[in-house]
Amino acid sequence: xxxxxxxxxxxxxxxxxxxxxxxxxxxxxxxxxxxxxxxxxxxxxxxxxxxxxxxxxxxxxxxxxxxxxxxxxxxxxxxxxxxxxxxxxxxxxxxxxxxxxxxxxxxxxxxxxxxxxxxxxxxxxxxxxxxxxxxxxxxxxxxxxxxxxxxxxxxxxxxxxxxxxxxxxxxxxxxxxxxxxxxxxxxxxxxxxxxxxxxxxxxxxxxxxxxxxxxxxxxxxxxxxxxxxxxxxxxxxxxxxxxxxxxxxxxxxxxxxxxxxxxxxxxxxxxxxxxxxxxxxxxxxxxxxxxxxxxxxxxxxxxxxxxxxxxxxxxxxxxxxxxxxxxxxxxxxxxxxxxxxxxxxxxxxxxxxxxxxxxxxxxxxxxxxxxxxxxxxxxxxx
Length: 382
What we know:
Blueprint: H1 3-11, E1 22-28, E2 34-41, H2 47-59, E3 69-73, H3 76-87, H4 93-110, H5 117-122, E4 125-137, E5 153-167, E6 171-175, E7 180-184, E8 188-190, E9 195-199, E10 201-203, E11 206-208, E12 211-216, H6 224-231, H7 239-254, H8 260-276, E13 285-287, H9 288-297, H10 302-316, E14 321-323, H11 324-327, E15 333-336, E16 341-344, E17 353-357, E18 360-364, E19 371-373, E20 376-378
Antiparallel strand pairs: 1-2, 1-4, 3-12, 4-5, 5-8, 5-9, 6-7, 9-12, 10-11, 13-14, 15-16, 17-18, 19-20
């Protein structure tokens, strides 16, 4: 799935258009007891309600592919249930209840019972929202123009948002009839979704019914317990963990050959690949062979490169590939020392160099132009 596919789905969520047909919801308390469930046609929603609902669903399609959004392979039993949900247009109450029951089990797996009265008082309730829609797929010709005559397919999908519902604080409210302020009781308010999914995966107008696109608001959180309990599916390694493991692997396998020059080469080469990639293409993925070539071109010895490749398989799995955005940060080049952090424009990163002078290691930055410290112009000492 690429950014064009995502944008096509997001356009369906324009509240002015009211494309989606139905929204279903299940509201549960902090220990998973259902409070209420509902189904409402989108066409019947008040304007402001529709705007709020569509805003929530749009959040599920926001973020970077490979970071906040990741494809998750589904086992056959979960595919069967999700297909029933989709193919019935979410109108079969028994099917929806089965799905909600599984997802409630997933929420409970991530949030065990409270251990104290204080925990229970501060706990969040949960709102599970589901949306159904049918998208007319526009076929494109060799010139990438829409071929209306041959565009006769549709893509039917469901979008899910799992939102924490939080109790706000008591407050005083103004009552015009009394000309006075009176106490307002705390209310339960739905927050932005912390996770959700699109099923099935949408790729170039086709449906991949074996895969869902899973959303996590926090890139550090994979929601393993939720996915396992709800769908018996395996989560992908979180983006932040991929980055940390990749950096640790480089340091461990390259040893002293993991120099500033090698890291600069890696950052420059991968950044260039990301920039040159078509914005509508699939996210750029890097295999161990891709990284090994960069390391070899950067002067790393064959023995160290081989050690890296062996470690890559053990860390990420045989045949694995990582999103390039999790290998480097394209728009940032930062050097951290025990007492100093230096941020450099990535395009100027080659200005940095390390050198040993009189037995002591230095990080050198050539001065080209004016220098300012906290806005105060200063001059180098001769």
